[in-house]
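Folding problem:
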Amino acid sequence: MKILVTGAAGFVGKNLVVSLRNIQEEYDRVHNIPGGVEEIYEYDRNTDPVVLEDACKNCDFVFNLAGVNRPRDQSEFMEGNFGFASTLLDKLKKYNNKSPVMLSSSIQATLIGRYGESNYGKSKLAGEELFFKYSAETRAPVLVYRFANLIGKWGRPNYNSAVATFCNAVANDLPYMVNDRSTELTMVYIDDLIEEMIAALNGQEHHCEFDGLEPVAKKNGRYCYVPVSHKATLGEIVDLLESFKHQPETLLVPRMVEGSFEKKLYSIFLSYLPEKKISYKLKKNEDARGSFTELLHFADYGQVSVNISKPRITKGQHWHHSKNEQFIVVKGEALIQERQIGVDFEGNPYPIREYRVSGENPEVVLMLPGYTHNIINLSETKDLVTIMYANEIFDPNHPDTFHEDV
């Protein structure tokens, strides 16, 4: 398949092109396009017009992402969003190319509510009608998507979306202003958009009609839409971003619920971090026995740490009521011992369970609630390195840790 992407240097275009190249070069083994991706024509405002001519003659699918968002003059909206669309369709007609054409429009084209006087919305609506007229004349399939706020990596601050602006400001310690924290945004994440675009290449796009500003799924609807979107207020967005910013101090990793807005926003935020913030120091707690360093905290799942034991050192010798841990030796050799505290029904101490482990053959050993446990470095000369997971973040006010030798 030969694919034309106009606006290829823009936010959506760049994300789409790299995704198509992954499919073309078979790095992406998840998505399949019948016949593969033979050629990708990338066209933008600085591209040689010959490329557009050649693409319109030979392409099998068109993604028209070209447009003007923030012009210096309001008249540029119509020129950029309607004018280029006319040029594109005229060239397709010139070569009698009836390939499917996708149009990136905007929810502002509804001209509803605060969008009623939007020159941008009017130019997008004019572009939509032009495409529908083109389809009626040529019988070429036209897929018109009305997007709200598109968010994701590579978005331009103060241009593509408020989310891009806030992410850049918070990540780089720049001033920003939230006029109304209660303002709610409807957002489509770039990866979800790309999934829909690939579906469209395969003739599996999602159709809809609009109930006001809301898309309503309809098999033969006039419009198309991305079925996955998110709603959040400006206040909720900036609060999340501020929490992400403080991860070097809190070690707290955001909730990573699959498909959640928080998970997606965190990925976007990271893409705006300056070089100096990509790494940060951790607090190492050291004594004569070795060291203990907390690596990551998780709001719902506890923490991960790394423990280093000097040669022949025994650590632990304690137990927990409810806290449970998992030890994974990644370097060296160790003996892990566990014993249920107290005595059995006959008054005898419970037997000691022993697990000899090494970094050569990593395995997980569970530290059970109600069992005192330790870890012994068996080497006479080398440090023991152990990754430790605990199901709760350590709270010095409620440590749930009690000394007892195994």
In short: Residues 75-94 form the longest helix (20 residues). The mean pLDDT is 94.
